[in-house]
């Protein structure tokens, strides 16, 4: 009766979305692009190349994509030693792990950035696996990141829930055929998350933890309200 709880990381478990907004804005500014911060915010959650394409368009000088990405990475890297976890993110992951869920992270982060995020969450003992952008050909909103997370968990889509904070998360999870849960702590409006496929929306990990038994996770067989079979 394995089941999987797949989590986005930035803006869902760690309070980093606005750090990404500021550092992407500065990277664009340094390269001579005037991109409004609100537009950057709406694009956070996409992989670097997709984010750049979304904000600058297909007619941009694509030869400069790597330079923009590197500038953002260097600027954001200044915060690696103090990334703030969202309230009760660690407790939520540990609660699910205790109740038999396979906890998998699905993130566009990799390398040193992913290590910094995991240090911030401080719940490695509860995390079974991580699906990063390096593992798939297409990032969110394509379903591949979520599908890869399910492969790592060894769990079918019907026995999984994906928790995220952006419309890209909700679209990816919906396309992968999993139940989707949104959180507001990334700064995206509730209505947008619901329109993108969220079955329910919570304030943050602490709110989801406090109402776990009434959440979509309780609808997964073997979930919080379902007795574990014995014998």
TrEMBL record:
<dbReference type="InterPro" id="IPR023198">
    <property type="entry name" value="PGP-like_dom2"/>
</dbReference>
<dbReference type="GO" id="GO:0008967">
    <property type="term" value="F:phosphoglycolate phosphatase activity"/>
</dbReference>
<dbReference type="InterPro" id="IPR036412">
    <property type="entry name" value="HAD-like_sf"/>
</dbReference>
<dbReference type="GO" id="GO:0006281">
    <property type="term" value="P:DNA repair"/>
</dbReference>
<dbReference type="Pfam" id="PF00702">
    <property type="entry name" value="Hydrolase"/>
</dbReference>
<dbReference type="InterPro" id="IPR050155">
    <property type="entry name" value="HAD-like_hydrolase_sf"/>
</dbReference>
<keyword id="KW-0378">Hydrolase</keyword>
<dbReference type="GO" id="GO:0005829">
    <property type="term" value="C:cytosol"/>
</dbReference>
<protein>
    <submittedName>
        <fullName>HAD family hydrolase</fullName>
    </submittedName>
</protein>
<dbReference type="InterPro" id="IPR023214">
    <property type="entry name" value="HAD_sf"/>
</dbReference>
<dbReference type="InterPro" id="IPR006439">
    <property type="entry name" value="HAD-SF_hydro_IA"/>
</dbReference>
């Amino acid at each position: 009766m394995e089941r999987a709880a797949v989590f986005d990381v930035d803006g869902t478990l760690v309070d980093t979305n606005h750090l990404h907004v500021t550092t992407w804005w500065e990277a664009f500014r340094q390269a001579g692009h005037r991109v409004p911060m609100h537009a950057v915010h709406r694009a956070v959650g996409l992989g670097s190349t997709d984010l750049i394409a979304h904000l600058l368009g297909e007619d941009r000088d694509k030869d400069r994509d790597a330079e923009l990405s590197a500038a953002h990475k260097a600027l954001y890297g200044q915060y690696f030693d103090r990334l703030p976890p969202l309230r009760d993110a660690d407790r939520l992951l540990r609660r699910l792990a205790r109740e038999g869920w396979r906890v998998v992270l699905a993130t566009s982060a990799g390398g040193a950035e992913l290590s910094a995020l995991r240090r911030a969450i401080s719940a490695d003992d509860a995390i079974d696996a991580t699906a990063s952008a390096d593992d798939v050909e297409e990032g969110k909103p394509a379903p591949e990141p979520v599908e890869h997370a399910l492969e790592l968990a060894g769990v079918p889509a019907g026995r999984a829930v994906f928790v995220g904070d952006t419309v890209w998360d909700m679209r990816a999870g919906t396309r992968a055929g999993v139940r989707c849960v949104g959180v507001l702590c990334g700064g995206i409006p509730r209505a947008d998350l619901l329109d993108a496929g969220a079955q329910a929306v919570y304030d943050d990990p602490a709110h989801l933890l406090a109402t776990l038994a009434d959440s979509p996770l309780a609808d997964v067989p073997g979930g919080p309200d379902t007795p574990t079979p014995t014998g």
